[in-house]
């Protein structure tokens, strides 16, 4: 079943080399990624991958410690090495001692004239250099992959959101991510779910009663459906609200089945005899609105879509009593795959600018 979640949390960011005390990745993991052995330069033999990683991970220093050792070799000074990696000299001295205990060999001779690598330290430094270089290559490759992913954003949205809310959100996103190419597909809520589940979109927006199966989502805005007619229709001159039974029995100009608007209207009138056969059934909000303006018949539309027509008296809102025609607008994504990169940023913008 689908679940509704908060999609705005930021993802953790980090670098492969993790300088200073903040480095958490092990050198063994970096070496395994590079496919080499620390001592001989040979790659792991058949079946050796998992045992090598398991045996090395508990006794090989992390990348931050190896970077510190390389800095000591470059500067010949523990204080200068500490400044390069951004930690205090006592912290650097403690880290070197910890690394010596971990490896079981002395790495640095300390004297008033500076710090000098021991013979074992020089050998360990040579191995460390290869590991750190491999980790930097790994980090550069991952950043390239992330950059390629972040250079595009595929959005799919139901009609009302696509036409009346997303343009404002996407303009704001472009100001933050000018290099991200955005493609927008519009369809009803059923189409949004299909494209997300098929991997054809990164983020979706729907207008229905609930999050579709297979998706997670979060509410980003609220909307209300309004019954409207042309000024010439008899309902435009009514002094009392339409009751639900009369609305249900009247042929209306409607969106197609599968649209969020139709889902909300079907559910609201299900206890009042259900909707009559539609006068017209159209596949876009714009088409429904145009039909209503020309006097084809009463229609039910999002109030987001009709503000201009109501202010210009091309359409008249007809009050309805005894039925709830409000709905939540949601951002959705495949279950278990929280939005990342540009999709996460767009989701954050919908909260900052809920009205578009």
From TrEMBL:
<dbReference type="Pfam" id="PF03466">
    <property type="entry name" value="LysR_substrate"/>
</dbReference>
<keyword id="KW-0238">DNA-binding</keyword>
<keyword id="KW-0805">Transcription regulation</keyword>
<comment type="similarity">
    <text>Belongs to the LysR transcriptional regulatory family.</text>
</comment>
<keyword id="KW-0804">Transcription</keyword>
<dbReference type="InterPro" id="IPR036388">
    <property type="entry name" value="WH-like_DNA-bd_sf"/>
</dbReference>
<feature type="domain" description="HTH lysR-type">
    <location>
        <begin position="61"/>
        <end position="118"/>
    </location>
</feature>
<protein>
    <submittedName>
        <fullName>LysR family transcriptional regulator</fullName>
    </submittedName>
</protein>
<dbReference type="InterPro" id="IPR000847">
    <property type="entry name" value="LysR_HTH_N"/>
</dbReference>
<dbReference type="Pfam" id="PF00126">
    <property type="entry name" value="HTH_1"/>
</dbReference>
<dbReference type="InterPro" id="IPR036390">
    <property type="entry name" value="WH_DNA-bd_sf"/>
</dbReference>
<feature type="compositionally biased region" description="Gly residues">
    <location>
        <begin position="8"/>
        <end position="23"/>
    </location>
</feature>
<dbReference type="InterPro" id="IPR005119">
    <property type="entry name" value="LysR_subst-bd"/>
</dbReference>
<feature type="region of interest" description="Disordered">
    <location>
        <begin position="1"/>
        <end position="24"/>
    </location>
</feature>
């Amino acid at each position: 079943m689908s679940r509704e979640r908060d999609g705005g949390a930021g993802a953790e960011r980090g670098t492969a080399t993790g300088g200073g005390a903040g480095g958490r990745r092990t050198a063994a993991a970096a070496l395994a990624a590079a496919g080499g052995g620390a001592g001989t330069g040979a790659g792991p033999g058949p079946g050796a991958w998992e045992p090598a990683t398991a045996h090395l991970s508990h006794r090989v220093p992390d990348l931050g410690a190896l970077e510190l050792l390389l800095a000591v070799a470059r500067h010949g000074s523990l204080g200068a090495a500490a400044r390069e990696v951004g930690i205090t000299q006592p912290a650097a001295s403690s880290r070197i001692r910890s690394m010596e205990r971990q490896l079981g060999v002395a790495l640095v001779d300390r004297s008033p004239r500076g710090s000098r690598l021991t013979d074992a330290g020089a050998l360990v430094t040579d191995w460390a250099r290869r590991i750190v270089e491999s980790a930097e290559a790994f980090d550069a490759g991952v950043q390239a992959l992330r950059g390629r992913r972040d250079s595009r954003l595929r959005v799919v949205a139901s009609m009302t959101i696509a036409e009346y809310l997303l343009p404002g959100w996407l303009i704001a996103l472009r100001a933050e991510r000018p290099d991200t190419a955005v493609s927008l597909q519009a369809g009803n809520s059923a189409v949004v779910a299909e494209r997300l589940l098929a991997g054809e979109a990164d983020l979706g927006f729907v207008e229905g009663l609930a999050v579709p199966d297979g998706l997670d989502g979060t509410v980003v805005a609220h909307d209300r459906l309004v019954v409207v007619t042309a000024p010439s229709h008899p309902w435009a001159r009514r002094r009392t609200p339409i009751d639900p039974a009369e609305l249900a029995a009247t042929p209306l100009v409607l969106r197609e089945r599968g649209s969020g608007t139709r889902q909300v209207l079907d559910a609201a009138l299900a206890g009042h005899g259900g909707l009559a056969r539609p006068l017209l059934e159209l596949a876009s909000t714009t088409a429904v609105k145009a039909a209503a303006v020309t006097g084809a018949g009463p229609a039910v539309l999002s109030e987001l879509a009709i503000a201009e027509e109501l202010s210009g008296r091309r359409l008249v809102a007809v009050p309805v009593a005894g039925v709830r025609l409000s709905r939540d607008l949601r951002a959705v994504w495949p279950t278990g795959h929280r939005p990342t990169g540009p999709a996460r940023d767009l989701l954050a913008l919908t909260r900052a600018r809920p009205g578009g």
